[in-house]
Design goal:
Shape: globular
Number of strands: 5
Radius of gyration: 16 Å
Distance between the termini: 23 Å
Order of helices and strands: EHEHEHEHHEHH
Largest sheet: 5 strands, parallel
Helix content: 40-55%
Length: 171
């Protein structure tokens, strides 16, 4: 299974993926992590696409995190993919990002966050998780609850949908 976690920086994609990957025995990639596969970007992407196709075929599980849309449409054309969009209000994103930048979000970073929100806003997805009202504690709590209730080592789309329900603030 291939899960795409998409959305702006600091919306919780990595936090969720780090917990979920253990539940569904998935490998996690973020952004251009695929460049580790080869010195040539073109070769690395070609090799990574084969990995993605293996996941789409159900032979492996991959969670791929994207903050930009550069490869998004190409990946969508590959087949049956679960797209989970993470979002939050700009003020929340700035507050979260400020923890990385000594309490101040410089104008270029604010502009980047606004651009990411605008870019991902209209993207069609299977599920959307607004993390504006959510902190790491409830997120971890929801994932831990799902992990404790897990009975088998296989994963399915319905399990992922249950996971998304648990991640959602109203879940």
């Amino acid at each position: 299974m291939l899960l795409l976690f998409v959305g702006p920086s600091t919306t919780g994609k990595t936090t969720a993926a780090n917990q979920i990957k253990h539940i569904i025995q998935a490998t996690m990639f973020s952004g251009k992590d695929y460049l580790r596969k080869d010195k040539s970007e073109q070769n690395a992407w070609h090799m990574f696409k084969k990995d993605l196709q293996e996941a789409i075929a159900g032979r492996t599980n991959i969670i791929y995190l994207l903050t930009d849309t550069e490869k998004f449409n190409e990946i969508l054309l590959m087949g049956d993919i679960v797209v989970i969009k993470f979002t939050a209000e700009l003020a929340i994103l700035k507050k979260r990002f400020s923890k990385r930048t000594n309490g101040i979000v410089p104008p270029p970073l604010e502009k980047m966050l606004m651009g990411q929100l605008k870019t991902w806003g209209p993207i069609v997805c299977n599920h959307e998780i607004d993390t504006s009202e959510m902190t790491r504690a409830p997120l971890f709590s929801r994932i831990s609850c799902l992990n404790r209730s897990r009975n088998s080592s296989t994963s399915s789309l319905s399990e992922i949908e249950n996971l998304v329900y648990f991640l959602s603030p109203s879940g």
